[in-house]
Amino acid sequence: MKKNLLLILIIPFLVGGCKVSYGFTSGSIDYDVLKTIQIHDFQNQALEVYAPLTQQFNEDMRDFFTRNTKLNFTNVNPDIEFEGEIIRWDFAPLDVKEDAFAAQTRLTMSVRVRYRNNKQPEKDKEETFTAYRDFDASSLVSEAQDRLIPQLNKEIIDQIFNSTLSDW
User: Fold this and answer.
1) What does the pLDDT look like over 74-117, one tens digit per residue?
2) Cα angle 5, 11, 15; round to 5
3) How many CA atoms lie within 13 A of 81 on its CB side?
4) How far, in Å, CA of 160 to CA of 130, rounded?
5) What is residue 117's predicted lDDT score, i.e. its pLDDT?
6) Is 43:86 a contact under the CB 8 Å cutoff?
7) Residue ranges per domain, the chain?
8) Rounded distance between C-alpha atoms, residue 40 and residue 85, angstroms
9) Average pLDDT over residues 21-46
């Protein structure tokens, strides 16, 4: 009886101490080869410019690579480099109703990225990444932009990482 009680008390601690973790960060980076990174400022070259977007995108991009890789930032001879520009930030009406007013609006963001791998130049690439979000057309555009910037940035930065460093 005492053995059974002891097992009942010990098993939750043993099971609770075990942890299986799956993650898609850090990709397939060979840290023996790649040690440093430089992320140049992405400029906003979209026809419509929303001032907070550029700074927020650059901060989010650097923060993502800081949190999800072991790469060290440098401005001198980096192993890998990212540069590019925001080339699209626009709105389009969706679900036009009988009265010719849209029920939804789509905000679309595109970023052109040039990735240079100075250790493995065959992996260099240039690519454009796009994300969009729909919002109620009766919402204020400025509020929708502020609310959607983090979501669009996250999706595009995930796409950039997966395309360049995770070898999916």
Assistant:
1) 999 999 999 999 999 999 988 776 666 778 899 999 999 999 99
2) 165
3) 15
4) 10
5) 97
6) yes
7) 27-164
8) 10
9) 81
| 53 DSSP β-pair partners | none
Pick from 77, 76, 102: which is nearest to 91 by CA? 102
Tell me the two tokens of residue 63.
């923060």
The continuous run of DSSP H or E covering 110 comes out as: strand 102-117
Structure tokens at 49: 């410019």
Which amino acid, residue 134?
D
Give per-residue pLDDT as tens, 127-155: 999 999 999 888 888 899 999 999 999 99
CA distance 93 to 23: 37
Contact residues for 54 (Cβ-Cβ < 8 A; gap 6+): 41, 42, 43, 44, 86
> The whole model's pTM is what?
0.80
Domain 27-164: top CATH class: alpha beta
Average pLDDT, the chain: 85
